[in-house]
């Protein structure tokens, strides 16, 4: 009986791991001497994803917005000059940036950076902030009013999970901007108080 339970547990763990990995975007270089290319696959993504491919001068080579559903595209790099190129995939929760080196007939992914974005949830006059801060770096949280006056400021140090609730029930009517700055990016959320 113990063996059956252990086998069932292993199958459940394997299934959970496979499903979890299916959500991760994949970028792979196609091994072919005659064709400089890479393939980008996005399986079972949640929500809207933007895909952007740029050169070192930030000129956009390719841009597309993908709605829900599977996505796969092969990028032909045979007409590109040697140099560095940047590929970025971004959805509501994360952004994944790749640095791609093109040299002669070789294409190589030399860097991959993944960044978790803060999640803002609005319920009535309350705004809830959640941020997964894997590096435990300092995070600055600020709120500005429509006249660009600072109405709230807080610095979180050494926390991996940052949670904060903002109560706008007694705030003056108008537009407010929540600003969250981690070690990599700055994020903004507009809030209207009626």
Topology:
Blueprint: H1 2-22, E1 26-29, E2 37-42, E3 49-55, E4 60-66, E5 71-76, E6 83-90, E7 94-103, E8 106-116, E9 119-123, E10 126-132, E11 139-144, E12 150-156, E13 161-167, E14 174-181, E15 186-193
Antiparallel strand pairs: 1-2, 2-5, 3-4, 3-6, 6-7, 7-8, 9-10, 10-13, 11-12, 11-14, 14-15
CATH homologous superfamily grouping of the largest domain: Macroglobulin (MG2) domain
- Give start-end ranges of low-pLDDT stretches: 1-23
Determine the number of helices (DSSP H or I, runs of at least 4 residues). 1
Strand order of the largest sheet: 4-3-6-7-8
User: What is the string of helix and strand elements?
Assistant: HEEEEEEEEEEEEEEE
* Largest β-sheet summary: 5 strands, antiparallel
Basic shape: elongated
The strand count comes to 15
Structural class: mainly beta
Quickly name the level 1 CATH class of the largest domain. Mainly Beta
- First-residue to last-residue Cα separation: 62 Å
Look at the structure and give the mean pLDDT.
82
The amount of beta strand, in percent, is over 45%
Radius of gyration: 22 Å
CATH topology of the largest domain: Immunoglobulin-like
The helix content, as a percent range, equals 10-25%
Please give the domain count.
2
Proper CATH architecture of the largest domain = Sandwich
